Amino acid sequence: MWNRIIALLIKEFLALIKDKKSRFVLIGPPIIQLLVFGYAATFDLNRIPIAVYNEDRSLASRDLAAAFTGAPAFEEVARIDHHEQIAPLIDNKKVLLVLHIGQHFSRNLLKREPAAVQVLIDGRDSNTALLALNYVQTIVAAFNLDWAQTHHLALPPAQLKIRAWFNPNLESQWFVVPGIVGLLTLVVTITVTALSIAREREQGTFDQLLVTPLTPVEILIGKALPGFVIGLIEASFIVVMAVAWFKVPLLGSLTALYLGIVLYLFAIIGIGLMISSLAVTQQQGLLGAFLFIVPAVILSGFATPIANMPPLVQDLTLINPMRYFMIIVRSVFLEGVPAKPLIP
Amino acid sequence: MNTNSSPASRRFGRQRLKGLIGKEFLQIRRDPSSLAIAFLMPVFLLLLFGYGVSLDARHIPVGLIVEKPTPEAASFTAAFEHSAYFEPMPFADMRAAEQALQLRTINAIIRLRGNFSRTLFSPRSAPIQVIVDGVDANTARLISGYIQGVWNQWLIHQAEARGRALDRPVVLEYRIWFNSAVRSRNFLVPGLIAVIMTLIGALLTAMVVAREWERGTMEALIATPVSVLEVLLGKLIPYYILGMGGMLLSIAMAVFLFKVPLVGSFWVLLVAGTLFLLVALGMGLVISIVAKNQFVAGQAAIIVTFLPAFILSGFIFDIDSMPPAIQAFTYLVAARYFVAILQTVFLAGNVWGVILPNLAVLLFMAVLFFALAARRAPRRLE
Fold this sequence. Notes:
The complex is a heterodimer. Chain A is α/β, with parallel strands linked by helices.
């Protein structure tokens, strides 16, 4: 029996690898996707274009403006002299944020009256707008504290001391890159398995397979193993890249990680084969794979938190294998969890 | 279009074109997966993204540790209880709270030490310890922002209650334009239309032409008197109609189901959609002509059109924050231009300074891909 399975396995691999373009499709994209995702899929703000409209040309207002333009999150791309200049800059997406310091800023500040500073933010991208607002609040709070200390004013009655655990500098890459292990393994494994039976059907070679001495179980195993091997190689490659290239700390145990990967592969290969057995043409196979992959990715917590979804959708995520794998891979990477608490 | 042919053969050509289009529609009817991509996919994706993707955190579970219950500490906890953003859970000590943070039952810990009330309003000021779960950096940042907001409001109330003004040197006033409620749905749903149209345009055409090659029917087509242009048009027109149908459906869902305000003009959307669809169809054609194999064409379409439209278009991730090399790369992604138009027309209105340059690039790309498709299109068998 094993001889027959191995023969089928060799045939499957040959079918995938003999064509130069198919071979490239299996190797090239994961590398490109890893790099693109790793660098582009970030919610951190870097060099966001801003403009400063400073009507009060005093030392204090220049200090505050410098705190904005000097922050790595912002980059000053325009200076504004008239009120009319503000709207076109934001409308045309030249700047995301305008800092407006009024004429009486330093006068009020020195008289110990509240000195108002206005910030206008482009809300078309709501997430970036909220994040930018957070940065602005932090900068203003730091300026206030600094001003209070140098001018011997009373400190605010209570202060927040915020620390982040597991990812002290709040680097999105640490969050996204481990997730890519789950994402790319899913995409490649599902497409390989989902198209495998559909291709045979479309080309009519499935009938030939049926008349060989292979039993249905052997055919299934032969169809499942290539996906398993490819998925395992790909997952290992990304884990190595995450640690060596993106410098994401791998705190937990490799055993726990691989136990997770193997179980995850079993789950998605099962789904891929199911899609494949339902599809008559490759187009249907690809469509089916797609219809599974997109919701699986969206509802896995890969990019946006599951807790933000409506309760009904949250219940839906419970049937998604990727959701569980995301928790495993992130816990192992960032929290250094040993194998024990991951069993559920 | 067929400028170099005589009037007689052009009329003939039109008939042939009709035949080809008829054939394509028949094929679409027979394999309903094409129709599914065009109509079910938009509905499915919009529902999924509209409801599934949200960056607005609500009811965040936070652990509160009050080491010594005092009126001030109680008012601080109440401030969190009244906030729509938080769902505070009391913990007896740090150990229990840390365990809950590790098990992800809470996202943050806020700890008021025993000397909180004593040091409050003292010159040294009272420290409030906050620990957030940093695994998801974006959420962690938003949560610390919300905590700051609650803290700020509480400070103002406390100062007022004690009849003294809060010494805040600089007071921040902010306004968020175009989306003052900061609903992430308003920003995601318009961008999603670009992703859906990429899918319909590129994935569908790529698979369709590759299928003709794989089944050998392309050779049969070449043997007939139809010209390259007629074959290309015969493929394009049916899928253009499907794609526009998908787009209208998406716009209708965005406006009526998700209540995204459409501030700008519908006709601008239609023009931009047409141009973008032509680009997507052109890309699909080029891919299928190069790939000639459904597996490769499908994979290539997902990788060179769908994923960039998803990640590099500004649909979800902000382009300005990407490293410069990747930013430069996004200029090659057609969806980038369409997403900018969609988000602007939906939320900000007809801002020609954004719309016209982006339309110009889309037009250029459409011409480029069709020229490429026409040049690479097979005239004879290899």
